[in-house]
Amino acid sequence: MIIAISGLHGVGKSTIGRMLADHFNLEYYSTGQTFRDLAEEMDMTLEEFTDFVEEHPEIDRKLDKKVKEKAQNGNILVDSQLSGFLLEDLADYKILLASDLETRVSRMAERDDTSYNEKLKETLSREKSERDRFKELYEIDLGNKENVQEVYDIILPIDDMTIEEVFNKLVALINS
């Protein structure tokens, strides 16, 4: 089984992704974590590394190649903003978690023990950079709802759901 789970920053895709990977006994792979690890290795903040990646598109291409290679082996859940697009023909389930900006920023500010305004500024900057990069590199427009709806099998708005409710709903949908 191959599951692609996507969503914007702070939507909970890593938390839910790990839970689903454990439940279905799948390897878990996160491009977001890989991105954060690379930033740390280069002694950069996420914002600095995001700016760096804008000038070095080979980093995105390398990460995406790794995603596809890992998925070829099967038995994996891939947590990535573009996993549904990258694994469109490989994934058995392409899941998009959706949540409003305020909810996502609040979650990240609490998780990272930082102010809401600081996290909002960082998130808006990162997401604009990513939208621009994805459009330029892959001709993927994450703002195009029709395109997104064509790619994902399951689009789940989660603002009014607990983590357990999201997990249970997805398990039920995958098992049905």
Defining key terms:
13% strand, single chain, alpha/beta, Rossmann fold, 176 residues, five-stranded parallel β-sheet, 60% helix, globular, 5 strands
Shape designation: globular
Poorly predicted runs are: none
What is the number of independent domains?
A: 1
Question: Alpha-carbon distance between the termini?
Answer: 14 Å
Distinct helical segment count: 9
Rg result: 16 Å
CATH architecture annotation name: 3-Layer(aba) Sandwich
Q: Averaging pLDDT over every residue, what do you get?
A: 92
Largest β-sheet summary: 5 strands, parallel
* Strand numbers in spatial order across the main sheet: 2-3-1-4-5
Overall description:
The chain has 176 residues and is α/β, with parallel strands linked by helices. It has one domain: P-loop containing nucleotide triphosphate hydrolases (Rossmann fold, 3-Layer(aba) Sandwich). A five-stranded parallel β-sheet has the order 2-3-1-4-5, with helices on both faces. Helix 3 runs parallel beside helix 7 and helix 6 crosses helix 7. The protein is globular, with a radius of gyration of 16 Å.
Layout: helices, strands, pairs:
Elements lengths: L1 E5 L6 H11 L3 E4 H11 L4 H10 L2 H15 L3 E4 L3 H4 L6 E6 L2 H11 L4 H23 L6 H7 L2 E4 L5 H13 L1
Parallel strand pairs: 1-3, 1-4, 2-3, 4-5
Helix pairs in contact: 1-9, 2-3, 3-7, 6-7
